[in-house]
Design brief:
Distance between the termini: 97 Å
Number of helices: 48
Helix content: 40-55%
Structural class: alpha/beta
Shape: flat
Strand content: 5-15%
Number of strands: 28
CATH architecture of the largest domain: 3-Layer(aba) Sandwich
Number of domains: 8
Largest sheet: 6 strands, mixed
CATH class of the largest domain: Alpha Beta
Oligomer: single chain
Length: 1236
Amino acid sequence: MKYKDLIHFEPVTEVIQLRSADQKEKAEKLVETYVISDRMADVILHRILPALKLEENDKSRGLFVVGNYGTGKSHLMSVITSIAEHADLLERVKNEPVKKALSDIAGRFLVIRQETGASEMHLRDVVFSDLEKQLSKLGVDYHFPSMDEAASNKQLLIDMMKVFNQVYPGKGLLIALDELLDFMQSHNDKQMIMDLNFLREIGEASEILPVRFITGIQEALFDNPKFQFVADSIKRVKSRFDQALIVREDIAFVVSHRLLVKTEEQKKFVRKHLEKFTPLYSEMAERLDTFVEMFPVHPAYLEVFEQVRVGERRDLLKALSSEMGKMQDKDIPTDQPGLITYDSYWRLMSEDASLRTLPDMREVLNKAQVLSEKVRHAPETKDFIEPALRIIDGLALHRMTVSDIYSPIGITVSELRDRLCLNLPLPEQDADFLLATIETILKAISTAVNGQFITHNKSNDQYYLDLKKDIDYDALIEEKAKSLAPSTVDRYYFDVLSHALELNNTSSYVPGFKIWESEIPWAGHGITRKGYVFLGASNERSTAHPERDYYIHFHGIYGNGHQDLKHQKDEVYFNLSLEEKKFIEPLKFYAGASEMSAISSGSNKDQYDAKIRQVRTQLLQWLRENFIRCFKVLHQDNEVSITEAVAKFHIALKEQAFRDQVFRLSGAILSDIFTEKFPDYPVFQGVDLTGLSLWGASESALKAISGGLNNRLSQYVLEGLELGHIENGIMVWTIENSKYANYFQKLIANLEQGKVINRKDLVVGEPGAERDSRFNLEPELLILVLAALMRQGYLTFLVQGVRLAEASAINNTKLDLDQLIRFTSISKPKPLPELAVKELFTQFGIDPEIINDAHALTLGVSQLQLNIQIELNNVVRMLESLRDGPKFWQEMILKPAEQQRARTDLEDFKQFLSGLQSLTTGASLQNLVLDVSEIRESVKARQTMKEIQKIFEILQDLRPAWDYLVQAQPILPHTDPWQNELKEAKQFVIATIADHEKRNVNGVSGQLRGRLENIQSSFAVHYLALHKEYRLDRDQDVEKGRLTSDPRWARMRALSKLSILPTKQLNDLQDCLGAVESCPNLQSAEMKNHPHCPHCGFNPAAISMSAGKASKRLETIRQDFEDLCKNWTEVLFSNLQSEEATHNLKLVDSGEREIVEEFLRTRKLPEPLTERFLSGIENTLHGLEVISIDGGEYLLELTRAGMPCTPDELEKRIREFLQKNLEGKDRKKVRIQINW
């Protein structure tokens, strides 16, 4: 879709002049095309109109219309003056509230339109001279005297208006003057003060005369710091003039409603188009409505345009019209927002040759052109030339918005992104990613122009055109590089190498010398060797202490006679040829930039530092990519190319970092030297240990030796030292197979008891480079071997005055690896307490003779700990059980004293077993402090365990019958004879189990179980009998069904609606019938698993046993129902025969009367029982009142005074009771119902 399909574009190319409104045809068009925003409507209604009204009001005064060039102030003044002059133009106004309000001034003025020009005249003379000429043409003959002849300009206006009113009675005079501020600013201070005084006089005249003055100015006059020098004069003008401001909101409204008109459908399309880009720009989503209205103009275009300082050339509507004219036939892009942003206005300004006459504009334009030209051809910006050029244009225009084009004020990266709507083909459409890319472009621009003209103000993160920043840094660097001595170039070569070898972040090992500690891999051993890297020849290095395993040298490119040096077998030399110009030339540039940076400061230093970083990156990449091709390596006077060395040692260096290439190749070259120097050094498989990781791995291995967890790293170390390996996830110690352990074990074995081997006899070397004297093991590896021997009981340590005899003591004393490697001495352990250990092994089921075999002893200790843990777990569980048991039926079996004694025995036994848990190794058995008798005494608690366990086993055997009876007990009433049987059985069980002799009789558990099962059977028989008695069987259930389905129930329920019959009697009978339950399904087999009926849940304890058998209750209900049917029929019959009922019967409806009379004749209820019959009965007995009396209350009342009593006394009580209940009632109409 093209832009012209979305926008009704009405170009504005004409510059409106106020005087053009003198012609009515043009005035008509100006009124018709003026677009009024809501805010402008408010300005017209509350600012302009009150100032111009002719009616007397306190708001009549002069008026300033304030707005920049191109904002429409001339258009606004033309519209106001045209309507004031021609009333018929009011109909052309499109805003209804404004149209209605302007009717107050429409056609009521004669208008004089004036424009100022370049003149030395005073404002007073300009206004009066033109006014005199135009009034003369209108037939008003009045002459304004010169300034020298007039004492008061206000009096002159009063005199003029007298003449005016004679020619145009009832009319007002409206003077409109455009472009006032430009005129006044060309005057000196004295002239400006006189101009302001004249304005004050015109304002005062407006308050008393039908003359009004309106003028357009470019800036607000009041409170403007530019006019501080005439502040007093301005204050006097301020009280006589009002200001009508045209702001950005009004301009935006004009642009969107005249220049860029859209239908609702077009707006929907635009909204959908822009919504794709809202995640990229921080304000677009929040201001989307504004973006849609203004499309394709970015709202920020107006904001920045308003700030540009280039005089009349800033005509907004013309600029936008020009931009829109170019875009009409273009397609709206799908991958860009497609907005006109303010950088495009810079391009319009650049094409205007007249602007070059302005010094600021010329300065900015020249620098911007230099930037643009360099960016178009620079390799750094070749991938994003278009956005780079737009950024430059945006920065250039921003320079023209600040008061001083050299001030360090700019735009942030996020503002550039959002206000220029920069969008790039990125792998992911993310605002932060786009922001970072734009920042990269800015840096690329700066790099492309060698840092010229663009500065980043880090204090506020703004970028701006720095017009004074025009240094050619590259030329200065190249000039400096030519003058550098070879030794200086070598110095910077070493600097680059220190970065490539990743040495730049660490201090040199010897101050003042380029020597660093390093480590290289020892191929096939899984560990590194320590040595030194020196940048320079060996005769330039200091004597480094301690001595290490190797020395790697990089000679300078220009050298210092290193070819005459004698080379050692542990030294490797790397040389770069002078022929490598692709490296040498950038290196010299790097050296030159570094030297220039050292003597520069501020932004210049920043530029040199940027060059340094840029070139260093290139040099480091070259070294990494060309090490194999361009370097040679020298070892033992044999120099070969790196290619030859790689082929010889079969190693792959490609794609590796320069540091790794150097170190891997050096390791391969020196591997045989290391093997010669350390022939018995261990091999660590599956791991690459360094000096740093060796320490951590040794700490992990030490924890494993001390009984802690074993991880993969510790496993590799222990396997390398042949101390153990993993089988099925468990560490298997093989210390006796380790050549390292065997060597030190023999030293200890040959040592006399009480003698020691001091640390100095085992460890040699300077601090920081110590090794054991036999295998060259590092101290951390040596300590692992010795700790493993201590674990097996072969030796003891003396560390910081503490004697360690077992590995677990390392954890207990909280000694770390650093403290252990500084041990004082090692010695033989104290002798093993043989008899006690044998007794201990015997008590826990282990062959005691294994103590004579070191390997078997290790296995035996492991089994001992397993057996101890099993028994300890049993004791802990038993102690927990003893907290509230053993119980039978919530009754403790053991007496309190016996219970406490058992707990005490088991607590002591638990403590004994816990103490044995520290005996985890053969060495730890030396610490056994118990003798044979103490061990035997401690294990006697096993008998207590056995006794208590016996009780719990019996209880567990009784559990099924016990659980059944627990559920059965509350089902039968507590008075039931079965409850006594259960009580006796419970007491018997408790007494039997509590007695030591009885509970240990063979078969006691079965006997007790049989007793409980008998009680269970007794319960089932008894329950079945009760169930049969209180539940209806199958035949009885049929009988109940017949009674329930008797049709007379329905007839009685119908009769219960009659007020004379006792409804409660029927309801109670129905409830009784419902309470008689049927359950013919219970079988005796079902009682084996459930102590109650699974069908009906019969619970004898929950019912009244006095209610009788279910069959008897059913028969009673049947008989009561028969009686109720007869009784209710009789009650109806007898009451219908009363005198009043007989009278009432004659008055009821004939149909109802007939059916009632039929009942009286037959004494039988009609079938079916109809509503007519019931209505007839109710109407016949109308007036009868049934008083219901509770039977219990009646008896209480008769017996309250005491019983027994005489017949007369009883009769008196009955009368008093009736009198109380019948008070105020007609006895003939009362019927009494006693509810029992």
